[in-house]
Amino acid sequence: MSSTDRDVDHALAYPEPPASPLWHRHSARLRPLTDAQRRRNLALLDLAQRKPRTRAA
């Protein structure tokens, strides 16, 4: 069987489009959590670990 132009997938012949500029956040700096946020996260984590898991019906 010979290969013809019809066998070529033209969608693969082009390079991927560039990534969205929204994916690149070089200037955005993470802010550290405040003590209140840290305490709340710990309390929610503790509650989630103690609570029995429920199964979806």
Overall spatial form = flat
Summed up, the helix count is: 1
Determine the fraction of residues in helical runs and give it as a percent range: 25-40%
Return the structural class: mainly alpha
How are helices and strands ordered from N to C? H
Q: Based on DSSP secondary structure assignment, what is the total number of beta strands?
A: 0
Q: What fraction of the residues are assigned to beta strands by DSSP?
A: under 5%
Poorly predicted regions: none
User: What does the main sheet amount to?
Assistant: none
Quote the distance from N terminus to C terminus: 54 Å
Radius of gyration: 26 Å
Mean pLDDT across the residues is 77
Oligomeric state as shown:
single chain
Task: Describe the secondary-structure layout.
Blueprint: H1 35-50
Notes on the structure:
The chain is an all-alpha fold and 57 residues long. The protein is flat, with a radius of gyration of 26 Å. It has one helix spanning 35-50.
Features:
57 residues; mainly alpha; 0% strand
